[in-house]
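Q: Can someone sanity-check these two? First one:
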Amino acid sequence: MTNWEIYLNLMDVRTMLLLKKERSLASLYEKSAYSVAAMDETVKDKERLTFLPEQVIFDIEEMLVSGNSFSFKKKLEEEIPKGLRMIATLPGIKPDSALKLYNLLGVDSISDLRRNLNAIRYRNDFGIRFEEQVRRSLLLYEKDYKELTLFEGFSYGNSVKRLLLENGLKQVEIAGSVRRGKETVKNINFVVSGERALEIIKRSVSYKRIEKEKQNFIALKDSRNIRLMFLIVPEKYFYSALVYYTGSRLHVSKLREIAKAKGFSISKNGYVLVESKSEEEFYSLLGLQYIPPEVREGEEEIELAERNAIPELVEQSDIKGDLHIHSNFSDGTNSIFEIVEESIFRNYEYVAITDHSGSLKIANGLSEERLLKEMEIIDRINKEGEINLLKGSEVEILKDGSLDFTSDVLERLDVVLVAMHTGFEESAASNNVRVERALSNKNTNILAHPTGRLISMRSGFSLDMNRVFSIAKKNKVALEVNVFPKRMDLSASLVKQARRAGVEFFSIGTDSHNVGHMNFMQYGVKILRRAWLTPENVINTFDFKELKGFLCTKTH
């Protein structure tokens, strides 16, 4: 059983628990699902899962034995109508809304939902906005493919890659939009080489139908309408094909022009017939500096590569610490000691504990008294000297723009993240004033998940982002790229916009709620690379002394 299949089963349970209004347990399953999906090796036993809740570990063990479902999931499926479960998984429809439709209108199928669109519009319980959301959700549902987030694309892609390598293929790499780090993707592309490749793919990958099959290509669609597309190539052309199938089309088109001018031929499949042992060598043979996948969009990257002017983009190896982690003091599941242990394992120089502040009751936010107690624990750990633990908090920006802790408390913290979790109904003018006051606070270091959007669920706050960027620049506040899977906020396009507005500093925050979430760091690196950021703009790349200097210019 692949990590992706385990992830899907756990997320199914999460949805059903939300339909039963068991929010705390649903949250545990969701957080556990994300951790399993992000793991860099296939789950074969419980040894790598000790950080997860015991009940979830038990369920995963049962899945590994059965190769399919588990008893807790089956019990929930018996209790909740299938149609209600389906409506709750429609893009943009929350389980609470699905339950409301079921209880008030008796909607328990997709056809029922279509028939009740007018009733939804004219009932005060729903209204025209919700009706518009339902119509959008149905349109997405009726597409012949399912869109995936970057996190989903990589998680599923890596599960398939590991499976194919385990089953005998010599080379497998994810390509396409996923490899370039696009925010949402319509399919997952792979380049593969090895004997009996078609046979191994069809035997290994679970699918409901073959959409297209040739000697060197196969496109599959799985039971959830996700497209998996495999280009099969000779080993000697693997890296040339990887460049071709990674794209973008415009980038590849320009490369082919250069290749033809140098006398190289083009294969029937579209890739340049250049033998190379790496992508770096492929670009070199075309007379170009290596171009990272994330910036292959046919903009100015080829012209820069011709002049050897592609900058050194931020890399995973540059990252020295995580600046947004929640412990079990608030809504995380691991202790500070367990977070420290995982951070040492990752060779981090520092890590920030940033539990929620008191007004965010739903996340078990900390009172000043509890925060001070947490700070005492951090001070004790720091005396042992194994890692630099930063005393931090994700501090709620209140409705008037003030912060949730007093200045006396904020000044005792090493790092202050500020964030909004309420106010989605407020106007841009109101939210702009709120954010401006928060970023102008002398203690503010980082604006966390700036837009507040959740992919496919909500668009975020009404905000004038150019004004936000201007205020951040003026006050030397770093903007976070929050890489919790359903956030990915800021997006690469907004990071580019912020850079054009003069914002100097950005941070990556995994927003980890268990130590498995610390694997999300790779997505932040990918987003920032896509925005052409170099290490000097990313405060997670600073050594501890440099980071403290940056933070202290604000807080002290």
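And here is the second, same format, sequence then tokens:
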Amino acid sequence: MSAAKPNRLTLIDQSIKHPGGHHYEYALRVLEAARRQGLETWLLAHRDYRGAIDHPVEPAFTWTFWDNYRYYYLGRPPLRPPGWLSSLRRRVKEARLTLDRRFVYSRVGLAVARARNLPLRDILLRTRIDDDASTVTTSRLLLAAARVALKVHSLTTRRLRFNRLRSLLLSVLALPALPLLLVAMLTGRKSPAARFAAELSAALAEFSNHESTIFFVPNATAAELEGLALLHRAGHLATRGRWAFLLRRPIFPGYPNGYAQQAEAARRHRVELARLRDAAPDLDVRFYTDTDELTEQYDFLGVYPFATLPVPVDTAEVPPTDRHPLVIGYLGDARDEKGFQYLPKLVESFAPRRLGAREVRFLFQANFNVAAGEPGSRYARSQLQTYSKDFVELAQGPFDSRQYADLLRRMDLVVIPYAADNYSARSSGVLMEALAAGRPVLAPTCTWMARLLEPSRQHHLANLFASSPIQACRLAHSVESFQRINGATLQIDPRANYVFMRLRFDRPFSGWVRIRLISLNEFDLALDTASNTYKLVNGEIVAAFSKPPSARLRLSAEPIEPAIHERPAEVELSLYMSSEPLPLGAGAALFDSPEQIPGVAHELVAFYDHHKRAAEILRHELRPLYDPDVLVHQIVTDPRLLAAEQPVQQRAIA
């Protein structure tokens, strides 16, 4: 690419078919930010794109991001609407299963099942066959016939060896088909990479000057990387521009200390990047993720350097609400990995509908991501539909930009009950949208989301328990070595209802630490167990728990990553008796397991005014992490100049 400043941003997203949905919203924010910074904009979308947008659009591609992802990483063909032959096959299969069920539960089927475990001699000579009076009595003649038929079938199968014969027949019948298979391989469909290269080349046919163009692919897979290598080999002019790829899927499960043990599993991703580097070493190409955790994973591959981009959302001011009742909301498709199946328990915990003096109602986006829905989410939606619509409103998406913004505007709190295992490194657009709107959130610990929110929580706890009114309620205070109190039973003042802890580490690390607090009575029987997971901030952890009155206390703190052996050097432990409930979060409530979701949601509601003020502070502090102008500036600016500017990174805030 020439040294000239870029003047055009071409965003490539094959999944955009209509205005609406996450892919469209992401593209719209980036294109609008690029236009504000004086760049020409152009969107290359799916071939079926229909709809109005205030940017030039070229419908170009036949495969979506998910088609490519399924092909390369799941080994499956892309999803397609079933044809008449597939529908007929499905109906035949359903009919066969129905007939099988009818046979199994018929008199003949029951006789066959019973005869499997009864020798023919017993059937003919025993006076009573049905030892269990609760079973259906089966005639002796029917049982004998079934037993004889089973024996004949067993002897025939053993003698003729149908399984081997079937394999031999299939091999013989397949020989004449080999030439046809070879012809199909040579003249078959193009690979996803070749298809992408051909369709992109056709879309760019009217343009010849690409040296000042940035091609941004916000949902990249191996198809785009290999397709760019093919274009470079063909000498296409588009390879003279700057290419920016955003990779948003994790390559390792778990946490950083386990990446080395999974190196072999990452071979595919390393080869994909190395193939592009070796085939086109002179390309101006940059790679990004949208979380620091993902950047660490892809940097581990050691092929290209990666940087972290913001998660762009609408930064327009969302007016605060002062509604009664409060509206607890859920945004996104109804999916199991997003915790939709936990929402019925949350709703049930608020019945009756009044908590103190504040009434609550619910607004959940409830459309499925697949036709029939995932099992847990499908059952959860059927449960939620039993409530009255003025208490639980289920909104059926997907929505366009205006509808989605209106939905968020109607919510006072946003619940994000995602599975921590799936989102330990992945980003969440819903979290950023809620923060940008100044809405308090409920989110899981041990995730990228919790890392952004953790400093605010611990800062609030440190200030809360250092304040004069709370200090006046302190019953006991001590500083102990961790080895002495970890897992030990401590005698405490039974009046204490809050525990404050500060864990100091000699060697800070980046992992998460789960703290468990067990309240015991005088007989060492557990009255209550509380747990939560914290991340080190400035070399220490500040934690607090509410507890019932108890005579004894047992606490433990363990890193959730088994290979991490660092432990606190000392623990500052304080007990308090407060006549008023205390908020243990600021702008967000973090849960450690799905069972805790109702409880932390109640805290958000009970201290809503406090959390709302804290959420407004978070909105301003975290703006660099969701501002689309920052994203465009980062991909447009030369990396050397960007390093000199020292932009705000995610870890700098955390």
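A (reply): Looked at the second one. The mean pLDDT is 85. The two ends are 35 Å apart (CA to CA).
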